[in-house]
């Protein structure tokens, strides 16, 4: 494909992307942002709860942690 055709094709694609406006489902966005599905995340968090306790007692060996 020649440079003229290639440039025209890129221009066409760029124009389509510039003026493309998809339909937005605002109710689905609101549900996602308000956190109506926290139950799923709580289940995932409970799987890793045993490791969370280890985070409080972890002291790095690089000397950046200071005892209070």
From TrEMBL:
Please name the InterPro entries in this protein's record.
Answer: DUF3073
This protein is called DUF3073 domain-containing protein
Organism whose genome encodes this protein: Agromyces tardus
